[in-house]
Design a protein that fits this description.
alpha/beta; Arc Repressor Mutant, subunit A; D-Maltodextrin-Binding Protein, domain 2; 3 domains; 7-stranded mixed sheet
Length: about 300
């Protein structure tokens, strides 16, 4: 039988040194001495006879071989975590707590009937319902800290079920200068006006979605704060139609007709980050969300046709 030369702890230390930017930072995060981390990585390199890191100044950098090995090691440590989580799931009849991460744009009116149906069958399981935004929603999947995730995309390497679609529209106060201009607006006109944006909940946000070219931007954490500012005549913002349609009808906000971009459609997806270790409560909640989905499931015989009701 093959006996590994290396240990999971050595690979975990290597990952920490890279992720936190050096030995000192990793030592602080792992609550270990810097010398023990140096020794662990040096031993790992010696056992493999491969240089994984090279130190330049005070920072450690991956070698070309190190990049390959690190990438593969992440699969290894993740597999072990999932294996242990699976054991926990097998050993417990019902999860004491289920974490559901939901992108802020997903209409809560679609979610509440699901939770109402879940409650009588929940067997006392607690629900942690957490709001996420953009990259923060992806983090809930890739970092595995949520049992179920509803968001606007599916990260690479994961599977998801489409459960609904929402539309975003650009709005401002009816007396805002943008609302006084002839429609459709040239997108370049927006550059010179304050844009309100919703804060990405990720610890490492990536500005890769949406129109973010305005020279002046204010960031808020909730749609309601953005709406309050808009109603004061401050800025413009892309917001979900279900959040602003009543205010538009009341004349408190105005839709902006923008050339080539008046509306944006987003598909909502349900993702189970760790399907192999999902407990019975998580599976039940997943089934209920799919039962209440706002999109028809594709026809299994002809995916191009909507399923018959």
């Amino acid at each position: 039988m093959y006996r590994p030369k290396t240990t999971l702890e050595q690979w975990r230390i290597l990952q920490a040194v890279v992720d936190y930017g050096g030995y000192a930072q990793a030592a602080a995060k792992l609550n270990k001495s810097q010398s023990s981390l140096n020794h662990a990585v040096a031993k790992l390199q010696g056992l493999l006879n491969v240089q994984l890191l090279e130190v330049k100044g005070r920072k450690a950098f991956l070698t070309e071989a190190g990049e390959v090995m690190l990438r593969r090691s992440r699969h290894l440590t993740q597999d072990v975590e999932e294996l242990e989580a699976l054991a926990d799931s097998i050993n417990q009849d019902w999860e004491p707590e289920i974490t559901l991460a939901v992108d802020l744009a997903y209409p809560r009116a679609w979610l509440y009937p699901v939770l109402a149906d879940f409650l009588p069958q929940s067997r006392g399981s607690r629900i942690r319902l957490l709001d996420t935004v953009l990259t923060g929603t992806d983090d809930a999947i890739t970092e595995g800290w949520a049992d179920l995730v509803i968001g606007g995309g599916v990260p690479r390497g994961y599977l998801g079920e489409a459960i609904g679609e929402i539309y975003f529209e650009a709005v401002c106060h009816p007396e805002h200068p943008l609302a006084q201009m002839p429609f459709p607006l040239d997108p370049n006109e927006l550059v010179h006006h304050l844009q309100l944006v919703i804060k990405d909940t990720s610890a490492s946000p990536q500005e890769k979605q949406g129109w973010l070219k305005s020279e002046l931007r204010w960031t808020v954490s909730q749609f309601h704060t953005a709406i309050d500012l808009l109603c004061q005549g401050i800025g413009f913002c892309w917001l979900p139609c279900h959040e602003v349609s009543a205010l538009v009808q009341q004349g408190k906000l105005a839709r902006l007709s923008i050339r080539n971009s008046s509306f944006r459609k987003h598909i909502n997806w349900l993702v189970v980050p760790r399907p192999d270790s999902a407990g019975p409560g998580t599976k039940l909640l997943q089934e209920l969300i799919l039962t209440h989905r706002q999109l028809q499931a594709p026809n299994p015989v002809n995916p191009g046709l909507a399923a018959e009701e």
